[in-house]
Amino acid sequence: MKKYLWLVIGVLALFSLVIASCSSSPATTSPSTALSTMNITVASDATWPPFESVNEQTKAIEGMDIDIFNAIAARENLKVTYKNVSWDPLLAGMAQGMYDAAISSITITDDRKKDMLFSDPYFAAGQLITVRKDNTTITGIDNLKGVVAVQLGTTGDIEVHKIAAATSKPYDDIGLAFQDLMNGQVDAVVCDNPVALLYVGKNSDKLKTAGIVFTNESYGIAVAKGKTDLLNRINDGLAAIKAQGVIEQASAKWLK
Q: What is the C-alpha to C-alpha distance for residues 21 and 30, in angstroms, rounded to an integer?
């Protein structure tokens, strides 16, 4: 009788394990292991600190945008190859499908939506004027005049072209624009406010901001048309890292 009792107990124990394994929730896996690997090429114009620039020691692209995209890539199992591309070729390349995606402080606009897809916004920015410390004539957008440096093809370039008293002087590298401002070769620089504040902070004895931010813009990650699967992964990853506070951490790190 003992022998049969132990046999019954053993069968019941085995049966309970089978039932438990069928009814319990599947083990939680990180998205990076649950999703198949996707190899992508991501363009960035690494002349726009603190969002993207080239590290002088490692020669790698770094910055707030890169930290954000790396966090998305890790979560969504994206294997990324970054390409440092000048601004105009970057936009043209995205329109032609030369790159899978681009992250480069790209303002979401209706015109750009014609050529590429955009992720959900991840950062709010706006245009801000920078002048030399001794400038007393330019105090804001209402009296912006003279030669105004901008990065070619940016929203700053577009805004300055709307001002009759201002002559836009385009640059491929915004750092050279600020250098010319300090050297007295241009009257002002118009660019995104975090970039302006970075250069003013580094050169507070020579530069100052004039007025307040005068546009409302949102940065998005550009994705080549037709790549909706990639766009969905990027949006899923972006939503997750927002919830985890990754963007706030990147802001605290880079926007000092």
A: 21
